[in-house]
Structures are given as C-alpha cells and as structure tokens.
Amino acid sequence: MATRDTLFADIDTMDPDRFAAHLADDAVMRFGNAEPVRGRAAIRDAWAGFCETVDGVEHEVVEQWQPAGATIVESNVTYTRKDGGRVTVPVVTIYREVGGLIADYRVFIDLAPLFA
C-alpha cells in the first residue's frame, strides 16, 4: 500500500495507478472549481486525462499541517507544458483519510496561468 510520505512523488510520476493507490474505493476528489469526481477508478481516469494535457508535474511542499482529521499541504507546483514552457502555481491540498487511504481529496488551485 502507498503511504502519504510518497503521495506527491507518486503524483509527480504522472502514472495514474501510483496516485490511485493512495485512494479509498469510494474516494471523492474535487480539483479546482470542477465538479467532484467520485470513486478511485473515476479519479484515476480524471488524473490520466489531465496528464495528457501536460508533459510534467513537480510538487515542492512548502508546509504541511495535520490538525485532527485532515492533512493540509501548501505547495508550489510546476507544470511543464506541451510546448516545453514551465509554469509554477501555488496550491493548497486538503485530504482526509479513512482506514489508511484517502477518502476526500481537495485541490485548491488556479490553472489559468498553465493554459494561458
């Protein structure tokens, strides 16, 4: 089983199965202002689709907090565009675990600079 210590490294591989290994079967993900995606398989497929739009993803964790029941991570994420350009945006991720897997995953981000 994947551990949260490798969560962002696994995401940065852009291998959807590595990200999905962190998720509960009935996990819910909300990415930016998009509609929530429900279920590990659907989240995996959504991440796979997003990965097709970029050539790279790199998380730099700035700070992490773990109040009761949640993990909050502030990071800078650098995306490599298909044209080779790189864009870094600030991101806050909040996730909650049940039974050692992520059940609720929320990403607060403005992707407008990436696609500008």
From TrEMBL:
This protein is called what?
SnoaL-like domain-containing protein
Q: Which organism is it from?
A: Capillimicrobium parvum
Tell me the domain of life: Bacteria
Pfam families reported for this sequence: SnoaL_2
Report the residue ranges that make up the SnoaL-like domain in this protein.
8-104
